[in-house]
Write a structure and sequence with these properties.
The protein has 242 residues and is of the alpha/beta class. The chain has eight helices and nine strands. The chain is globular. It starts with 12 loop residues before the first strand and ends with a helix. It holds the Pfam family CBS.
Length: 242
Amino acid sequence: MRAHQIMTRSVISVAPHTSIVEAANIMLKRHVSGLTVVDDAGKLVGVVSEGDFVRRSEIGTGRKRGRWLRFILGPGASASDFVHEHGRKVSEVMTASVVTITEDTALAEIVDLMERNNVKRLPVVRGDKVVGIVSRANLLQAVAGLAREVPDPTADDDHIRGRIIDTMEKNDWCPFGLNVIVRDGIVHLSGVITEERARQAAVVAAENVEGVKKVHDHLCWVDTVSGVYLNSPEDDDLAKAS
């Protein structure tokens, strides 16, 4: 399998001048752990993630280095720490040297890149524009839904996946972080919904795409106020049976 067969296409991005507070609120509201950072031309310039908010002066978690270590590292390290802990804009805390992949990157290479660079997500680029993102969650979804003896995805599966995503993204009930995996006409839907009626709408949308044989619902419901989440009924039944 390759990146384009599991990647999330609806990538949430912010600008370098976006405030830290706004970026944090976007991540909480959209239930994502990272955001791509793009300039006014849409070019990828960085990534900001949950880890960039761990060491912050507002919550008293700034890095404490001993005097001897500060001496060894020099003033440059202290200056960098200060910017990361007190910066007000995304550009001041983001990771600028981003590891990227293309739509044709094989899953084995994706996993290798994640492990080698200690990252949880890889932007998928076409030229210098972001067209998707592959996270550990996407890989987990692929393993959970497709770890069985089935044929490799075909061109028809790719077309089915594209039509399902195109149909859903036109609607305001489209799940956050929508991911669609298709194998031999069998569809696996995953993502986050905040309204139960969106679950049925998503399943119906997939069922109406020509070539779809069956739809598996892995959509997770999240309460936007409390943060409480529930797995799909199908996943709950599978968990009880195992």
